[in-house]
Amino acid sequence: MAYFLDYVTAGGKYFQMPSGSADIAAGQNFELEFVLRRFNVTNTRFLGRASSSGAIRFPTSTTFAVVNSANASANFTAPANYTDFVKYRVWRNDGANVNFSVDDGAPQTGAQAGGFIFNRFLADASGVSASCQCKYIKLWKDGVLTNHWENTTGTGTQMTDLVGGQPFNQMGTWPADDSEWVFYDDGGAVTGLQRHNGSTFVGVGIKRWNGSAFVDAVLKRWNGSAFVDI
User: Fold this and answer.
1) For residue 84, what are the contacts with CB-CB under 8 A and spacing of at least 6?
2) How far is Cα 214 from Cα 26, in angstroms, rounded to an integer?
3) Burial of 154: CB neighbours in 10 Å, binned 0-12, 13-18, 19+
4) pLDDT by residue, tens only, the chain of 230 residues
């Protein structure tokens, strides 16, 4: 199941990242992919540090900046899209230049050989991010997927790392009812109905009446000419 983070600026909230989990060495090749819905505001602070330099952010509504630990910035043009979720990719594959693409479109390229040290998500040295919504973050280092941050339960105080085991932890004041996690259809296969039993989601059986008793029902889908098993 898939849930996106509905982040509303208030209460000084952000996520603390495990030390070193998203650090990138100078000249190291990497790829960062994330799906984000921004709103028509400045200062969407995506990744950053508690102090000093180093950030990946949208400083204006149409600018994307990749700032290394020495405060050198590579700036790119970002689309003014405030309605849809957009997939952003940032990568370096030659040790010297950073590329930026939107929804797998033509990349923009800028010089950026420096390293990055990040320890906050949705905050940097200047403060917390503007309101936004995020589905997931994936990070590859030297061609290997090292981290995949996403919430798959709709509950809790973490953005789980499904690959590296280094979750982001909520800091500041967050909703007490888990309303920051919003279910969405990710287009995956139907795996059955579920209900929450107070601590986790469990399967719910589907039954039909056969005239004398309830028996298991089989779900079908229409493939254009006939009903087939799902």
Assistant:
1) 37
2) 64
3) middle
4) 789 999 998 888 999 988 888 899 999 999 999 999 998 788 899 999 887 778 899 999 899 999 999 989 999 999 887 789 999 999 999 999 999 999 999 999 999 999 998 889 999 888 899 999 999 999 999 999 999 999 999 999 999 999 999 999 999 999 999 999 999 987 654 455 566 565 566 666 677 777 777 777 776 766 556 676 66
Distance between CA atoms of residues 177 and 134, nearest Å? 19
d(CA 105, CA 65): 18
- CA 46 to chain CA centroid, Å, is 10
Instruction: Give the tokens for residue 48.
Output: 């950053």
Q: What residues pair up with 66 in beta bridges, in sequence order?
A: 56, 74
Domain ranges of the chain: 2-184, 194-229
Say if residues 54 and 67 touch (Cβ distance below 8 Å): yes
Taking the C-alpha atoms of residue 99 and residue 107, their distance in angstroms, rounded to an integer, is: 6
Q: In what order do the strands lie in the sheet with 44-48?
A: 73-77, 63-67, 55-60, 44-48, 120-121, 14-16, 168-171, 158-159
Query: Tokens 């795996």 sit at which residue?
Result: 191
CA atoms of 55 and 45, how far apart (whole Å): 8
What are the backbone angles phi and psi of residue 159, rounded to the nearest 5°? -105, 105
User: 2-184: which CATH topology?
Assistant: Jelly Rolls (2.60.120)
